Amino acid sequence: MLKQSILIIFFFIFFNLLSFAYGTEDLSQIIDEEIEWMQEETFVFTATKTAEKTVKTGSSITVITEDQIWKMSAQNLADILKTVPGLGITVNSVGMTQIESRGIKTMFSEKILVMIDGHPINLQLTNGGSVQYAFDSLPVENIMRVEIVRGPGSALYGANAFLAVINIFTKDAENIDGATLSAGAGSQDTYNYNLLFGKIVKDISVATNINYFDTEGPENYIKQDAVGASGRTLLPTEKYDIDTKLDYKDLIFHAHYASRKSDGSFIGPTNVLNDGSRQDYREWFLELKYKYKVNDKFNIEPRVYYDNSHFDNLWELFSEGFPGFGQGDFPDGMLVRSAASNSKLGAETIIHYEFTDSNKAVFGISAEHQKQYDVEGEQNYNSLTYAPFPDGMQNVTDDPDQIWTVENDRKFYAAFAENIWDIRDDLRFISGIRFDYYSDYGETFNPRASLIWEFIKDWNLRLLYGSAFRDPTFAELYNKNNPAIVGNSNLSPEKITTYELGCSGKLGKHVNIDIAGFYNDINDLIVSGIPNVNSGTVISKGLEFEAKYTFKSDSFLAFNYTFQNSEDKDTGYRVADTPRHRGNIMVNFGLPKKWNFYTHILLNGSASRAQGDEREDTAGYMTVNTALTSKTFLGIKGLDFSLNIYNLFDKDYVYPSSSAVYYDYPASGRAFFTKLNYKFW
After folding, report:
1. How many helices (H) and strands (E) does the chain have?
2. TonB-dependent receptor plug domain: from which residue to which, for each copy (predicted)?
């Protein structure tokens, strides 16, 4: 039924857009000419590592601007990404955000590269730190725009730019120019405080954002966990986030720190409800970059960086009184504490060179040393027999038969090149290739090519071919003493080859349309087991359509629809936990006196189960979120107001789970959040 609903809405909106474009010329004449200029001059950086018009990048790309973020009153990155075609948002068993892209979803979202101002923020342990651990809720108050490039990006960015690249651009001193204090509160005893400051003094500019977030978290009802118990999820969480940029002429220093502590585990890593788990994550990076302009055609940008992440988690695998596995019970519960640090030390140099007015290139080299160290472990059971230790919790850090992983490191070296050639004014060819060498598994080559043809004025056809890779994580390589997952140091990188055909253009002055078909051939997927192996093969194909009608500069109707079908190439089974159909409708009305009303409708189709899981498909659902915002609230200059209502109609729906949680992971019901921003000067 949901599939038919999505298609009906799709055709209804599409044909209404046509009528708007060609049947309302009187309306068109009163719309600001500024809108057309804004549509034509949207520049992006992520797709080619150069500033290019969106239609000239040869990629399926979505840009979410600061103004759009304000209108939707997004409170976190997930609020932004769930409106993008080809992407989906769910949660895993410990309550962390998962990003699905083009029909592929994994525990740690490790096949999507997430960056802050071009700086990758993934963890070596799981490659999922970018959206999960301390960085899972970057303060939206500091986001200038988000660029989402769907498709392979390894030819420019290397590892993990497998299915998509998400680049979050933070605000500079020029964007801020003053100080803004924000305070918000909402459901689940959620509180958020933010201070944003930016100023330019002669050749020095400073931009700083400080954020504090606290919530009791969702208390959603679980009908039946892995041991048949029922109860409510537990995830009270406290977060700190500090971002600072200091520029002196062409020298740029960027530092970011984030921490996240949770006194709970949502459900838990073993899908067993418990009240004894805690999570503690801390991540930070430092980057120094210099922009050297040799002349108008030649620029060099060297940078050095250091990333560090640390976690210290206590997991209650089974609750108090657990009878064990026939070798003794656990009156305090079955407990394990794991801790480790990861670091990255690297350098990169990028060269931009313009051969002619119609031909330019980007060259780059990079090197990085990745390290896992300070591994610690405590537990109250034997990893080999699962019998309880007589004396309870024991430190097993130095016991190779008990500790969960080992300390290790690796290095990689890379070189890449990209050429952008305007063959004619209406024809562009982009080609690139990257070579990476990793000390633990060897080398990989990844090319990318796209052709963009403006076959009619304002209409562009694009063809894309590219490959990408996802390197094995330290967890996949070295984890051990685990009943279900054992690392394998001989793993190879996962590989994907992508073909894409797209078309974008305008109907009249005020309707923008983009459509893209994609075909992904994925090989050497790393499959968890004893040990992990490269054995997965998947074909993912589909279609993405989006359209936007702009009534005036602050009112619009937007719609996108995604069809995606992912199947195991060997068995023909659909890939689990991803819907075939998904649609978004966004309606925004600019109201008098600087008020704004925004509505987002998400239609998510049913998702198939894993092979061997006899449950019915996860049911589809429709949710409605609304936001009411005001500039100069109560007539006070510098005071802004926002009110969000999530899941307006209190829809009961779930995120897919493993068969251990029979009725899946329940999503939150209706929730509210309100916020005030005040700019001091």
Report:
1. 8, 37
2. 56-162
CA distance 133 to 450: 35
Helix residue ranges per DSSP H, 133-191:
154-157, 173-176
Residue 485 has pLDDT above 90, yes or no: no
Amino acid at 548: K
Architecture of domain 2-679: Beta Barrel (2.40)
Q: pLDDT digit string (tens) for 620-629?
A: 999 999 999 9
Helix (H) or strand (E) holding 6: helix 2-23
Q: Is 629 exposed, middle or buried (0-12, 13-18, 19+ CB in 10 A)?
A: buried
Distances (CA, A) of 432 to 47, 314, 423, 429: 12, 45, 16, 10
Condensed to tens digits (0 to 9), the pLDDT of residues 657-679 reads 988 899 999 999 999 999 999 99
d(C-alpha 82, C-alpha 85), whole Å? 8
The β-bridge partners of 629 are 596, 642
Question: Distance between CA atoms of 378 and 271, rounded to whole angstroms?
Answer: 21
- The answer to whether 402 and 356 have CB atoms below 8 angstroms apart is no
Q: In angstroms, how far apart are the furthest CA atoms of the chain? A: 83
Please tell me the distance from the alpha carbon of residue 514 to that of residue 499, in angstroms, as a whole number. 17
Task: Name residues whose C-beta falls within 8 Å of residue 288's C-beta, 6 or more positions apart in sequence.
Answer: 251, 252, 253, 254, 303, 304, 305
Residue-level length of the chain: 681
Among 129, 107, 114, 126, residue whose Cα is nearest residue 162: 114
Token look-up 């079908």 returns 565
Distances (CA, A) of 273 to 188, 357, 395, 669: 19, 63, 25, 20
Contact in structure between 191 and 184 (CB atoms under 8 Å): yes
